[in-house]
Specification:
By secondary structure, the chain is mainly alpha-helical. The protein is 47% helix and 11% strand. It contains 4 helices and 4 strands. The protein has helices at 7-18, 34-39, 55-69, 92-119, and strands at residues 23-27, 45-49, 74-75, 128-129. The chain has a two-stranded parallel ribbon. A two-stranded parallel ribbon has the order 3-4. Helix 3 runs parallel beside helix 4 (92-119). The longest helix is centred in the last third of the chain and has 28 residues, at 92-119. The N and C termini lie close together (9 Å). The mean pLDDT is 97. This is NAD-P-binding protein.
Amino acid sequence: VTGSSSGFGLALIEAVLAINERVVATLRDVTKLADLQAKYPAEQLLILPLDVTNTAQIAQVFKQIEQHFHRLDVVVNNAGYALGGEIEGIPEDEARRQIDTLFWGPVAIMKEATRFFREVNPQGHGGRIL
């Protein structure tokens, strides 16, 4: 689950953990999940730093998932944020950062997830991207 620090991402990982399933929570500041990390064992909860605009970090996260859980069933592309204001008042660099986070980040996650589903998961298992 990308964007696990608050909102839907946090609610989703809490719900998954509550039914005793395993989850990988990714977020830019892993200290925000210190309470959950103290509550759940590493066999159930893996917390990893991730900025979805950093493709090298995305590849590293998937490598760590492979080493830790050896498979992956569902990827939830949830990272994002909103910009407010008049279109002409938003600086172009801020708008481009947002597009990188909301569009190109999820594209990079999907590419790596698809590779993982095909090459790492057991033959015929696949996976889901939400």
